[in-house]
Design goal:
Number of strands: 0
Mean pLDDT: 88
Order of helices and strands: HHHHHHHH
Largest sheet: none
Oligomer: single chain
Structural class: mainly alpha
Radius of gyration: 18 Å
Number of domains: 1
Low-confidence stretches: none
Shape: globular
Length: 204
């Protein structure tokens, strides 16, 4: 096994870990009666139909590149940039930690999780586990996974796609917080004073 194929295999392990976790929680949500697809209000919160379609396209493009990378498409290797081996293995370690943190977040949310900007009936504010210090730990896990993807693949294609994904999350976070304020009012405003968006607050 060549050096580059080892990184391909390592990425495949990370990808399967993430895929298994996401599929498990999507099935659990569906069995509990939750909605996986977005409703009309969720699409409006995202910024409208155009933004929602753009988000779907970006996701499909990323998945296409991931599959082609795993399968060893030669043309993708033409976009590699030099990184020391230790830094690429650091990317793998960041990926493992990110998936573990992401899983902890999903376990904390349980069936209140949604991939869309929508709340379930009788939804309550979660402020335990990773949510005790961070308002958006799930997004923090996503960003960590994106950083690990860039380092592990050392490829400009993934750097570009992940940069767009990161910008998308930064676009989405304020809209999600507005939704939470509308739903929970002062309770969420107080919660915001004691938590950071993506990292714990050092000072309250």
């Amino acid at each position: 096994m060549t050096g580059e194929s080892i990184f391909h295999t390592s990425f495949l392990i990370l990808f399967l870990m993430l895929l298994a976790m996401r599929v498990y929680f999507m099935i659990k949500l569906r069995r509990s009666g939750g909605r996986i697809t977005p409703g009309k209000e969720a699409i409006e919160r995202e910024g409208g139909q155009g933004i929602f379609i753009l988000r779907v396209i970006l996701f499909l493009v990323l998945m296409t590149f991931l599959v082609m990378y795993i399968l060893g498409a030669k043309w993708i290797d033409g976009f590699r940039f030099p990184l020391p081996v230790w830094l690429r293995w650091t990317g793998f370690a960041i990926g493992v930690v990110s998936v573990a943190f992401w899983t902890w977040t999903q376990l904390t949310l349980d069936t209140q999780w949604s991939a869309q900007l929508q709340l379930r009936e009788n939804h309550h504010l979660v402020s335990t586990g990773p949510y005790a210090r961070i308002r958006h730990p799930l997004y923090a896990g996503m960003l960590g996974w994106c950083i690990s993807l860039i380092l592990l693949t050392a490829n400009w294609i993934f750097a570009g796609v992940c940069l767009l994904a990161m910008l998308g999350l930064l676009w989405r976070i304020p809209r999600e917080e507005r939704m939470m304020i509308e739903a929970f009012g002062d309770e969420y405003k107080v919660y915001m004073q004691h938590t950071g968006r993506l990292l714990p607050r050092l000072f309250h």
